[in-house]
Fold this sequence. Notes:
A: mainly beta, B: four-stranded antiparallel β-sheet
Amino acid sequence: GENVEQHPSTLSVQEGDSAVIKCTYSDSASNYFPWYKQELGKGPQLIIDIRSNVGEKKDQRIAVTLNKTAKHFSLHITETQPEDSAVYFCAASSWNAGNMLTFGGGTRLMVKP
Amino acid sequence: DTAVSQTPKYLVTQMGNDKSIKCEQNLGHDTMYWYKQDSKKFLKIMFSYNNKELIINETVPNRFSPKSPDKAHLNLHINSLELGDSAVYFCASSQTSGSVSEQFFGPGTRLTVL
Lengths: 113, 114
């Protein structure tokens, strides 16, 4: 089955700096890679996703890159703000796995004002 | 206008009891899921279900069973609760339509087994 590893487990940055979270996956059949943000006491919320036919996707301050050959993908947050503080999860999925998401271990991002 | 809702939000019960968690989605999606988040925040899929197929993560004990009265609901039944079942359980839904698509999560149910 799929295995997703995520680094770092914690990340502390100063407001206005950039934050980068990296993930690797094992199953070459995976073709969908979402990123979720989870705030305290809430469910995961999708912030951006990328499919295997695309190398990069950007949405305002958030961008995701995918390297299929190396089986890794990354989340980039620029101009971080205190409200970006949360736990971020990467995940991988494929149609032939019933669309079930395999999550990374999560990254606790702290943005210091 | 909640998309995916779960009840109850908190559930405290004794070891050995049987309990259920309800999930409803009003997005018109055809597939629903249950995930378990342990104390270390690790999220793990338990079930994937649409009106045609139930896919069970092989690590899930058979004390756990999903039940779907209709397309908009997927309830989770847990028999003979154990201490290790304490976790936050999330329901999610998506529209598969022949390809992988984004999943929307509910707010979670925190289960505490004493």
